[in-house]
Write a structure and sequence with these properties.
Blueprint: E1 2-3, E2 6-11, E3 15-19, E4 29-37, H1 44-54, E5 58-63, E6 69-75, H2 77-90, E7 95-103, E8 112-115
Helix pairs in contact: 1-2
Length: 116
């Protein structure tokens, strides 16, 4: 049962616990991605932003001082995978390496933004 954005879970019908997730958030995942190559100055963040919104993802994308781009995406697994593939396709000649790791979902991200 969902109450005020908290999921009410009953174990053994004896004790109720409130978790800060909605039912749909429980099936969402998060991934941290580092893109390296020629990814600064080519519209990478703006394209990633557009694609993340198209796939209904939350999180952020930003340039890092070492010349890489960091992206945190959250949503349904297939949407995340499709977004990553779209970005790789759009920047096939620019991306040299993509490092992806799964991280805990953070319900505080409500949209996808570009961080400067």
């Amino acid at each position: 049962m969902v109450i005020d954005n908290w999921l009410l879970v009953t174990f053994n019908h004896l004790t109720d616990y409130r978790l800060p997730f909605t039912r749909s958030e429980m099936s969402k995942i998060a991934k941290h991605i580092i893109f390296s190559g020629h990814v600064h100055g080519v519209g990478f963040r703006f394209t990633a932003h557009r694609m993340a919104n198209r796939h209904q993802l939350t999180g952020f994308v930003r340039n890092l001082p070492d010349g890489t781009v960091e992206m945190l995406v959250q949503g349904f697994g297939q949407n995340i995978d499709d977004c990553i593939e779209d970005i790789k396709g759009a920047f096939a000649g620019y991306i040299r390496e993509t490092k992806i790791s799964e991280i805990p979902f953070d319900p505080r991200y409500k949209d996808f933004g570009i961080t400067f």
